[in-house]
């Protein structure tokens, strides 16, 4: 089962990456059985916490989002995550030959590497049930660091490249990931100008 890889990547990542490489799952099945499920954690938790729990900044009063606003932002976040994983997977495949990756019959390894490397970020979404900004920032920072390490660890195994080239490869991919992140932020500002921004209420 694909979801079993989520736990294996935390306990024995090298063996898990080798197993992922052998599976050659199609991108469609990988998306339906893994990405669509785990990527929903953060938007669902964010909806619950922002619409029902609320948060405070300093000594200010409790702040919440309206249910409609929280739902809209959660759905947009979910879609952005799905597009981001696909874009990162496409970049992995596109750069593969540049860094000496071996040719594969099923070109799904890039998507698999992107999806499974994002596992810590997906699971960090549970932290949003405790809507304290500094706590969420720390949890997601740790998740990003571990996700980057997972990608570095998995590149030589999944893509069949030399360990020495993985440093440059993962550096290029992290740059792509940063561009994707900035693009989503810009997209958010544009959407807010069209009236799909947050609507706050006092708790």
Automatic annotation (TrEMBL):
Location of the Yip1 domain: 7-183
Primary location class: membrane
Membrane keyword on record: yes
Membrane topology: Multi-pass membrane protein
Keyword presence, Transmembrane: yes
UniProtKB keywords: Membrane, Transmembrane, Transmembrane helix
Transmembrane spans: 31-55, 75-96, 108-128, 134-155, 167-194
GO CC, one annotated term: membrane
InterPro entries registered for this protein in UniProt: Yip1_dom
Cell compartments where the protein resides: Membrane
Domain of life: Bacteria
Pfam families for this protein: Yip1
Name under which the protein is recorded: Yip1 domain-containing protein
Source organism per UniProt: Marinobacter subterrani
